[in-house]
Write a structure and sequence with these properties.
8 strands, eight-stranded mixed beta sheet
Length: 175
């Protein structure tokens, strides 16, 4: 399967790595949060690290990060900026709790897998199998396990976020 392609329940892409305590002001600074439109937020995603990410990120890319990724303010603009930039998933040691929930709400898949993060470098290719709780660093040929999300969270992510999930449920109930 080509890099950046999401087929079925497999997420595969090139990895960008970041360290511990990356807060939402680094993911998308407040001065760029005058919108909730992904495409308008995308050019500023991760701009706290410079222009390299925005210039080089491709659809389907994956972020691997250290502990407490997404700490800080409760802005939904942060995961929206990552989605707009083309990020297909985030794998981290741990997440800021509000960021974690905001990712679910907007449909950005995220997984906690410290073992994968510890050995992964920017430019590696990874495949994530959410249903089976596995991530594979294709570059190194190593596979790791992560705790699966509860069924309801998995359903929301698979629907593309909370709004899409609720719309789907409403359509089902009106039949």
């Amino acid at each position: 399967m080509p890099e950046g392609e999401v087929r079925g329940r497999v997420i595969r892409g090139r990895v960008w790595t970041f360290g511990d305590n990356v807060d939402t002001d680094v993911i998308i600074p407040a001065r760029h949060c005058g919108t909730f439109l992904r495409e308008e937020l995308a050019p500023y995603a991760m701009c706290g690290f410079g222009e390299e990410f925005a210039a080089g990120v491709r659809p389907g890319d994956i972020i691997a990060a250290g502990a407490n990724f997404g700490s800080g303010s409760s802005r939904e603009n942060a995961p929206l900026a990552l989605l707009g930039a083309g990020v297909s998933a985030v794998v981290a040691v741990s997440f800021g709790r509000i960021f974690f929930r905001n990712c679910i709400n907007v449909g950005l898949p995220l997984f906690e897998c410290p073992e994968m993060v510890a050995v992964t470098e920017s430019g590696h290719v990874a495949s994530i199998l959410p249903e089976s709780g596995r991530v594979r660093n294709e570059t190194l040929g190593r596979e790791f396990r992560f705790p699966s999300h509860p069924d309801k969270i998995r359903e929301i992510l698979e629907a593309g976020g909370m709004v899409a999930y609720v719309r789907g449920r409403l359509r089902q109930s009106s039949r």
